[in-house]
Amino acid sequence: MNRFTSLARLTGAAFAASVSPLGAQAQGAAPWFSVQLAAEASETRVIAGGVMFSCEGTTCTGPRSNHRALRVCSELRRKAGPVTSFTANGSPLPEEQLARCNG
């Protein structure tokens, strides 16, 4: 096997690992976003702020996003309804930002 073939295989393996659907949330880690809605979500999957949220009842969870928490919250509110609490990486959205999210 020559150097080019070895490099191609290594690069291919690294790429496959980086796009694998086994992200942190799928591996059992806590979700980045944890949200409580005022009423039950009408759908079990909601895309908001570039995040695929999984919703069950009034609880929605989602993986990490590059967008600001307030933006993700506002988009989720538009698609799923009023938000009563919004947590990103264990930190709750401050009350004034939660009010803007729902505004």
Detailed description of the structure:
The chain has one domain. By secondary structure, it is α+β, with helices and mostly antiparallel strands. Helices cover 35% and strands 26% of the residues. The protein has three helices and six strands, in the order αββββαββα. The radius of gyration is 18 Å and the shape is globular. Helix 2 crosses helix 3. About 21% of the residues have low confidence. Strand 3 and strand 4 form a beta hairpin. The termini are far apart. It has a six-stranded antiparallel beta sheet.
Could you provide a short overview of the structure?
The chain is α+β, with helices and mostly antiparallel strands and 103 residues long. Helices cover 35% and strands 26% of the residues.
List the helices and strands and how they pair.
Layout: H1 3-18, E1 33-37, E2 45-48, E3 51-56, E4 59-62, H2 69-80, E5 83-88, E6 91-92, H3 95-102
Antiparallel strand pairs: 1-4, 1-5, 2-3, 3-4, 5-6
Which structural traits does this protein have?
103 residues, alpha+beta
How many β-strands, per DSSP? 6
Strand content: 25-35%
Radius of gyration: 18 Å
Q: Multimeric state of these chains?
A: single chain
Return the average pLDDT rounded to an integer: 82
pLDDT < 50 stretches: 4-8, 10-26
H-E order: HEEEEHEEH
- Helical fraction: 25-40%
| Number of alpha- plus pi-helical segments | 3
Could you tell me how far the N terminus lies from the C terminus, measured between alpha carbons in angstroms?
Answer: 62 Å
Strand order of the largest sheet: 2-3-4-1-5-6
The largest pleated sheet is described as: 6 strands, antiparallel
